[in-house]
Amino acid sequence: MTMRFEPTEEQTLIQKTARDVATRLLAPRAAERDRSERFPVEELSELARLGLLGIALPASLGGAEAGTVAFALSMIELARADASVAVAVSVTHMAAELITRWGTDAQRQRHVPRLVGGEYLCGSFALSEPQAGSDAGALTTTATRTARGWRLDGAKQWITSGSHAGLFVVWARTAPLGAGTRGLSAFLVERGTPGLSAGRPEEKLGLRGSSTVPLVLDGVEVGEDALLARPGDGFQIAMTALDSGRIGIAAQAVGIATAALEATTSYVKARVQFGVPLAQHQATRATLADLATARDAARLLVLFAAWKKQSGLQFSGAAARAKLVASETASRVCDAAIQLHGGYGYTRDFPVERYLRDARVTRIYEGTSEIQRIVIARELLRPR
Ligand code: CAA
After folding, report:
1. pTM (global) more than 0.90
2. 366 in catalytic set
3. Is 181 in the pocket of ligand 1 (CB under 6 A)?
4. pLDDT by 10-residue block (mean), the chain, 384 residues
5. Of all atoms in ligand 1, which is nearest to the CA of residue 364?
6. DSSP 8-state secondary structure symbol assigned to residue 129
7. By alpha-carbon position, which residue is closest to atom 18 of ligand 1?
8. What 8-state DSSP symbol labels residue 232?
9. Count of C-beta atoms within a 10 Å radius of residue 181
């Protein structure tokens, strides 16, 4: 079997569409969104209009059905311009994918076209809680049966896009704590459902154009049709969704690293010290060579994980490797980018300080680097 590295015509077209809109719409105001912490409402609507919220989703549900490699290529382009917009896209795509996989026909028809078509603006993934982050299985939000469905009570933390999302996938416990991860279930809760409220957005180091909020669920009544799959399937739904989501976050990290590398390449050609451009100094060239090589290695891991997923192969370990390498690489590239910019890189006059701040969280959310290592090691050591 031949191994092909060149993108298909469709993948190239989607990548180009993403690059064009990122250059035209996202890049010019990314710094301003970072400063004002403005959520990208118009930007997400435009991405929905262009079909960039549903790249790997079925055409019958409003998606482009173009596969995960195309999704990853598009994510890299969006994050290269504005990582805050990219994370909203990635989480929305993850929510739409998990409903497509686990939902009933009615749930798919109701929610997926609204997520990818922009009617919900974006989706949120409400798993983490104040006391349950890496240990997601320890969450304590409860779902209790009522005459017409379920009642949800509890608190969620770090909910990306939670201030604006039209739909929340909410995890809750439907069996006592002793049931552990087997006692969790997932629910689809629409914005505006009484009892569901978002708290004050967190004041974050980076990704300041993305909102991150706590949620309160105070007697949220939902119908039986809000339950995704069966009671007790929740943890598996979360884990499989995160396997996919990690490809999106890894691609986001590659996009940020690419932006930092490009900004630095331009800078070192223009900046003269000791009578020649920085680019003429051997130390600069060696650093750039290492950074470009690390970025390319991360990019290949991301595309490999995406390819495995769209080929129907087991991809959990590949996604974790991609996320681990891409997020750590992005931090390293952005830090070196500031170093090569010298004092200017430490100011807001150049974009590299924003890239470093935005890159930092990719080592934390959708599973910290430490969690990725757990996932990778478990796969490696699993009896065959
Ligand atoms: N696919 C399918 N099933 C899986 C799975 C996977 N990838 N990983 C675990 N499972 C199953 C196991 O097979 C096991 O099934 P059984 O009960 O049938 O045996 C069950 O789930 C429990 O698995 P573990 O014993 O491995 O569970 P654990 O409690 O030890 O946790 C973990 C494993 C990998 C550490 C997991 O807790 C984890 O991934 N933690 C990180 C959570 C995370 O990534 N949170 C991100 C928050 S969301 C976010 O950031 C989004 C955003 O807004 C940007």
Report:
1. yes
2. yes
3. yes
4. 86 98 98 98 98 98 98 98 98 98 98 98 98 97 97 98 98 94 98 98 98 98 98 98 98 99 98 98 98 98 98 97 98 98 98 98 98 97 90
5. 50
6. B
7. 182
8. T
9. 16
